[in-house]
Structures are given as C-alpha cells and as structure tokens.
Amino acid sequence: MIKIAYFDASVETPEEIILAGDMTPIRLFGNPTIGIDKANEHVPPNHCVWARNILQQAIEGFKDDFQGIITSHGCDCTNREFDIWLECIDLPFLFFLNVPLKRNEIALKFFIDDMKELISQLEETFNINITSEKISKAIKKMNQIRDLLRDISEYRIKMTLKGSEFHALVKGVQQMDKDKALNMLETKLKQLKTNKPFLDKNLKKVLLTGSVIDDTEFIRFLEKLGFQIIIDDLCIGTKYFWDNVDETEDPIYALAKYHLNKPIYSTKFPSYKRFETLNFLAKKYNVDGVINIAQKFCEPILYSHPYFSKKFKELEIPYLFVEMEYNRESYKQLATRFEAFAEII
Ligand code: SF4
C-alpha cells in the first residue's frame, strides 16, 4: 500500500482523504538521537530544533518508503521548511496544505478549496479516484479511533494508565495502518477495564502543554521525577481526538469544519484563546500544576508563555515553563527544575 507522510505541527492534515485513496497516512516525527548538521546547512541556527531534526531526516532520506509528503500550515518554521523540501527531496508527490489561521466562513471556504486541490493532485499523481463515499467511510473509521482514544485517555486520570503509555499509543496510531490501530485500541480498552490504580499516591497530577512533544522518553523522564500526565492539549494527545467529524454533512465540508472548530493549537494564535482551553482542562481535571514545554526556538510557545504565566498566577495554579533542546542528554540537565516544581505543588 502507498504510504503518504505528513509533516504537521498541529494535526490538521485530513488523514481521511489519504485513507480514501486507499493509501496509508504516516505522521513524521523527530528523532532526538540524531545530529542535525545537514539541516544546519539550510536553515539559520535559531530555527526550531524539532523542525530542523525532521529536515535532517528528509535530506538523509527517510527510512520508510514514502511516495509523497503533505506539509500542513502550522507555524512559520514548518511553512518555510517546505520550500527547502521542494529543493532537497525527490518524491513523486509534495503538497503544501494551507490550513487557515482565521475561523470564519471565508477561511472555511478557502480550506475546502485547498482540500479539493489536494484530492485532485493525489488523484492525478497516483491515478486513483477519491470519492465522497470513500471519504465518508474513512471519517467513520477515524471517528471510531477518536472515540476509543477519548475513552482510553480517561484511564490516565483514573491512574490506571501511565501518561507515557498513552503517549506511545497515540503516536503509534498516527504512524500505523488504521485498521490495525482500531484493533489495538479495542484490545487496550478491554485490558484497561481490569487494571488496578497505581499505588503511588504522591504522584503529581499535571497538565502538559507546549510544542510538539514527540519523544515518549521525555514523558517517562517526567514520570521518574514524580509526575503523572493526566491530561494534555498536545497534538500527540487530546488535539488528535478532541471531537468527532460530523458524519451527516458533506464529507469535505465536515472535515474542514472539524479542523477549524477544534480548540486552537499551540502553533497558532491568539494566546488568550489557547489559554481558555488550558484553563478549562486544568479546572476540569483539577490538576496539581501545568507544565509548558517549548522546543528550543519554538516561537509560538515562547510568545504565549508570558501571558500564560500571568494568567495562571492570577488563578493560583502552579505553572512551570521550560525551553529545551531536542536531545535526551538535555533532559537530565533539566531534572532539578522539574524536581523543584514537584516539591512546591
Ligand atoms: S516545535 Fe514550535 S517552532 Fe517547531 S515546528 Fe512545532 S510549533 Fe513550529
């Protein structure tokens, strides 16, 4: 089966369109164990470390046999990298999907038009037919996955599922065949119903937010320091299954509406809109604190941080902001800051 990768900092790529073409969507992730010397030849040193890491993999050649890559409009880093990809990558299909920042009728129409352009270019390149019926079928499948992930996510709160296990599960779903993902999630949910809560009552229950945090090892590192991520607003987390796509409307319209109606993601502005979601989650789940992680040079997160800091202080919700390098050695250097935060909450 043809594999189409997507480079997306805010999970706004409509995977259903790829599935409707009988192809497999695979999300691209960074690899914190590699160097980024080749990427550094193309971009300035103050370009986000995560996006640079993926550029490095693209230049070296992905290990998987992708036939195409879709980049969705996330932050300025992902947008501008696409221009470099056009020069450096030799694949039959490269497409930039314009996901609008604004959320009004004009933006919706713009997004629908761009999705239609994506469909027609996929059809032309791979000689396939992406029909409305096939998209509707794919929406149903993805909605089942979203339902299961939402149910499974709640076991983090019941303290029977570790945050790191859940993170690995969502990451797996974004990279695997969706029928296999469905089976895996159904089995996991059955198993979770019989799990007993962790014995450790001292774990600090936190809300995790920030940049793309795709290294599950980082979540395990936080757990070793005494945290349990009970909720998040991450793209490898709730932003992937926040809501369902309406199955009764025209499928392309429903997909566009779904992505534009989701709570705004960390790559986008305004900060006060993002804060509304964080505040809602922090209160709903009664968290002990909020941890906000910025990948080094991640401008959207750096921009929102002062506002979040002020607002959480007003609400007396403990808040920690950390900017970090995208490599595992750097995690250890941050241990003291996380330990100090665990002590005060
Ligand atoms: S980590 Fe930040 S700067 Fe980097 S791609 Fe994601 S949103 Fe953009």
Topology:
Blueprint: E1 3-7, H1 15-20, E2 24-27, H2 37-40, H3 49-60, E3 68-72, H4 76-88, E4 93-97, H5 105-126, H6 132-157, H7 163-175, H8 178-192, E5 204-210, H9 216-224, E6 227-232, H10 251-261, H11 271-284, E7 289-295, H12 299-315, E8 319-324, H13 328-333, H14 335-344
Parallel strand pairs: 1-2, 1-3, 3-4, 5-6, 5-7, 7-8
Helix pairs in contact: 3-4, 5-10, 6-8, 7-8, 7-9, 11-12
The site of iron/sulfur cluster (SF4) has 15 residues, from helix 3, helix 4 and helix 12.
Description:
With 345 residues, the chain is α/β, with parallel strands linked by helices. It has a domain of 126 residues: Rossmann fold (3-Layer(aba) Sandwich). Helices cover 52% and strands 13% of the residues. It contains 14 helices and eight strands. Strand 1, helix 1 and strand 2 form a beta-alpha-beta unit. Helix 7 runs antiparallel to helix 8. The protein binds iron/sulfur cluster.
Count of β-strands: 8
Percent of residues in beta strands:
5-15%
Helix-strand sequence: EHEHHEHEHHHHEHEHHEHEHH
Number of helices: 14
**Biggest sheet, in brief?**
4 strands, parallel
Give the strand order, joined by hyphens, for the main sheet. Answer: 2-1-3-4
**Rg calculated over all Cα atoms:** 20 Å
| Fold-level CATH name of the domain at 3-128 | Rossmann fold
Amino-to-carboxy terminus distance: 49 Å
Ligand catalogue = iron/sulfur cluster
Poorly predicted regions are: none
What would the principal axes of the Cα set say about the shape? globular
The CATH architecture of the domain at 3-128 comes to 3-Layer(aba) Sandwich
Structural class by secondary-structure content: alpha/beta
**CATH top level of the domain at 3-128?**
Alpha Beta
**Helical residues, percent:** 40-55%
Whole-number average pLDDT? 95
